[in-house]
Amino acid sequence: MQCTRHLLLAIAGGIVATLAFADAPTGSLALPVEELVLDNGMRVLLAPRPGPGLVAAAWAVRRGSGDEPAGKSGVAHLVEHLLHGGSTRVTASDYARLYTEAGAVGIDARTDRDVTAYFLQLPPERLELWFWLESDRLLHPSFGDVGRELQVIAEERRQRLESTPLGPLEEELQRLFWGAHPYAATAGGAASDLAALTRADAETFFGEHYGAGEITAVLVGDFEPAAAREMAGRYFGRLPRVRSNANTAAGAPSTIASAAASASATASGAAAASAAVASLPSPPAAGTGAIDRACACAPQARIAYPTVAATDPDRPALDVLAGILGGRTGRLQRALVDRGLAFAANAQHESGRRGGALILELEARGSASPQQLVEGWDAERARLLAAPPTADEMERVRNQVTTGAWRGMREPLDFALRLLVADAQDPRGVPDGGWRSLEGWPRAVLAVEPADVQRVARRYLVPERRLVARITRSQR
Questions:
Q1: N-term to C-term CA, the chain
Q2: Which residue of 2, 158, 189, 405 could cross-link 442, Cys pair, CB 3.0 to 4.6 Å?
Q3: What digits encode the pLDDT tens for the residues 137-177?
């Protein structure tokens, strides 16, 4: 089963010279990041690094498909599309032309379950253009042709999901696994919900969630920090801390409320958001059971177990557990692939702001059936519960974590997106929360012991709580 993927990217390459382990034995990363908090609550992260090339410039709102109202799935993605339409003062064509003439590349955006990010790369001498255009479309969004954008989104859905052999099935599995949880719908939205979305829905979502207090911007590359700080205050400082929802819903440009009203609304909004997250439903506590499906694909099995949110203390051990199981030298490889039962076997642990899942993807080889794959996994699970991972297995995963932490910072844009995702998933206002959680994550994983892996396996790999999908090849 594939839950909505994080913006975190797998990155190949070498070590970043400007980053250093502050304490190699404990695996602490010293990130060269300066955090600037504007008067309106917006955060700007500056990560200057010497060298030629373009500057990665990105910003994100700490909201995504997991924040959509019931029956309005896809509205976060719709807002993302509409913001690419420029502003009431800069048309979509002018918006694209100005960036292209300035040498910008990779102009794109992505809606995920916890965050919506907007990003590009451009020459450092054109950074003021980025500050101006991005703040302008946030201040005066045009929200132009909603019908056309919904058609574009519907076509994206057909190409990326409905027309692929596994797409509709994966959407169904995600819905069955998460149930009433906010992660049940894909980021692109359900077809029935998309058909009913309106301009008012998009404006309401924008008005409720796109205040400056929920936005973080990142610059990574060879730029002048002092100039960037000044431009951040001059351009992004214009944004309202919270938006006037009535004005936004009516189609007028967003307005800045009084400072006192903004501060009061932000405090009450934060408390309400914390209460809402605390009361969110978890994935099914009762047994979801097994289902049988068929598609024009190789026979396979998908097994998913509910786990924890990104900030939970058990997350590092669960990440290590996935590493012990997956990979070319992992237990699934030895138990299923090397024995000829599976052509491929993968394990991954995904954690978001509201919950997580440990997911196994097993593809059958030859005449092996999906049920045989499930039984092979159950036997491997029993061995794990009977004896903890070996020292060699732990060392392998620790090495992967260490090198992965380095590689994840190599490319400026990938580093910027990692910072934005971490900022969206972790609570702010705590010493190691937000983007700073990236610094402590390697240390937390390296501190995991074999007994910790066995403990979380017992706690979360519970057959009564899992979803099993046995998928056979369709006959037509």
A1: 23
A2: 405
A3: 999 999 989 999 999 999 999 999 999 999 999 999 999 99
